[in-house]
Amino acid sequence: MESPFAEYKATELTSERLSGYFVEPRYINKMYTNNVSFVIGQRGSGKTTLLKHLCSSYNKNDGLPKQRLGIYYRFDINKMHSFSGAVLSDEEWDVLFAHCFSIEICLLLTKLLIDLKENYPLDDEMKICKKIRHLFFEEYDKEITSLEELSEYLEHVDYIAKRYKRNPLRVPTPMISECEKTFEEYCSLISQQSSYKNICIHFLFDEYENMLDYQKRFINSCAKNASYYHTYKICVRPYGADEMKTRKVSEVLNEADDFKTLDYINDIIGNANDVADFMKKACAKRLEKYYTERKTPFSEIDLNIEYYFPNKKSDEELFAKLSKNKKYIKDTQKEVVSIFNSFGKEFNENWDLLQMKLFIALYNKRDFNIDSIIEAFNTKNSTYKNWINNYKKAILFLCFSEQKMTYEMSGFEDIISIAGNVVRYVLEICDYCFLCTGHTNDGKYSNISEKMQTDATCKVSQRRFQQISTIPDYGQEIKQMVLVIGHIFNMYHRDTQIQRFEPNHFVIKRRNATGRNYMDSKMKKAIQFSVMYGVFEAERSTKKCTAKDVPIEDEEFHLHPILTPYFQISWRKKQKCSFTLDEINDFLFGSDECVSKHLSYYYGKTKTYNEQQITFEQMKKECY
């Protein structure tokens, strides 16, 4: 039986389903402006749903005055890459793509005008149709006098172009259109009609990152020429719009003059509270639809997703659970006693698990002073409070790993954090949870246990890790790098010395290498793809570095929170690691033996509890 959250991919939903599930972001009005915008957001964050909603709302056939029309177009990766190959030169592919794209956009616009024709007729329909027909040069034996006839003609032109694309060596070359000018001219003519007076047509382009470089240049040229009556809202993943060149030599899209960048989460949904509210509403919509379709009576509380997830356990409750392992407590106490004895002191303190583990971690610091530490523990002064603030979560992860237990994740707040504010991951985790829980006597869902929540989160995390290999061009290499880096982060989480607090992000350092080789390397391309496909999140680094440790990129790369349960590490952003260019290159492209040497180095840097080192080959067998 399907759960209420089984449908979470916008591309697979019908228009009716999409409309029923849509939650309006707090700052959606930023999408209504007539300026060109690039909307940056991770895969699954809701960009497609937003564009399709805008398109649907703009194109309502209700007879009311219109300010906008919307044309949605998705740059399908297979379709975009079909415009490449040795059979044509780069210049020929460039021209053919622009021609085919112009046909498709004009056809979509024509079909929309036909759908709206009853309530929004064109004063000069015949004149407009003839003008548009003459921008395409393919011969046709019929006169074009209506939108319906123009649609037939454009389908004919589209067929000729696609037939040539499939077999350019045997099929005559099509007559190439005016390309950029075609839908620009079309929009201008429409805006002069009384039904569409001064209207602005919004071209809602999705998955810009899927295009080849020359295709991006064409779209950028179109955006450069946006006008009062036509504009572009372009959704793209991080790093998907790295160069903003146009078709003209030396011309680029300039953010100050030509477009505005919007971050989908921060600029359109809002702050952390807005995100949480957005996620709750998205879940409520699905629960409401589920209960309604099954004719199950429900109240407001039944639509509150937090009602199904027990409150998150406090850190104190988690430590209490860990402390039930008497052998573990005894072994920890033994280690503390041994340290005391080495200083000629007797251990008679009544310390709990957190304090004992904190003491052991502090013992490994260079400035360890047992007397000052005992005093801080007894008086609980500001120094002690600062230690607790920094070490507490790190010690929790350490204790869970040493007891070979999975760190517990519970409460809807945790799910949002682990999902990295990506609505698709929230729905995916909820789907697993609701599939595993039962129903009450009145047909509603039961509460979801903490174990179910933890298991569901780990399953989604594992699934997302395995899907890394499907990333185009560098999937296997990126998966190898994530496996290595994830295990290094895990080593630090299991390090009894707690040298680093909850590391889950890194910077790439120059050190002995030059940055020049990196800038044009496949290593950089692989890093960009890993960010684009949501494996890492890139954030600008704000901390100063020493001269020898200046990063190659002025960015930190955070392992996406959805992958942290797989490696049993924290999703919080605390301390980072540093890797050299050589290390990153080996993590991506190195042999098993080469990677094993790096792992051995990090095993040597950390001190783990009863842990046996394994080779990278063994690690892959366990994880792949």
Protein model, in words:
By secondary structure, the chain is an alpha/beta fold. The model has no long low-confidence stretch (mean pLDDT 90). Helix 4 runs parallel beside helix 7, helix 13 (326-342) packs across helix 14 and helix 20 runs parallel beside helix 25 (592-605). It is built from 26 helices and 9 strands. It has helices at 15-21, 47-58, 77-81, 90-115, 125-133, 147-166, 180-191, 213-224, 264-269, 272-293, 305-308, 315-322, 326-342, 353-363, 370-379, 382-402, 412-418, 423-436, 450-466, 475-493, 515-519, 522-532, 564-567, 581-589, 592-605, 616-623; strands spanning 37-40, 68-74, 200-206, 230-236, 260-263, 505-509, 536-540, 555-559, 577-580. The longest helix is centred in the N-terminal third of the chain and has 26 residues, at 90-115. The protein is 50% helix and 8% strand. Strand 3, helix 8 (213-224) and strand 4 (230-236) form a beta-alpha-beta unit.
Write the layout of secondary structure elements.
Blueprint: H1 15-21, E1 37-40, H2 47-58, E2 68-74, H3 77-81, H4 90-115, H5 125-133, H6 147-166, H7 180-191, E3 200-206, H8 213-224, E4 230-236, E5 260-263, H9 264-269, H10 272-293, H11 305-308, H12 315-322, H13 326-342, H14 353-363, H15 370-379, H16 382-402, H17 412-418, H18 423-436, H19 450-466, H20 475-493, E6 505-509, H21 515-519, H22 522-532, E7 536-540, E8 555-559, H23 564-567, E9 577-580, H24 581-589, H25 592-605, H26 616-623
Parallel strand pairs: 1-4, 1-5, 2-3, 3-4, 6-9
Antiparallel strand pairs: 6-8, 7-8
Helix pairs in contact: 4-6, 4-7, 5-6, 12-16, 13-14, 18-19, 20-24, 20-25
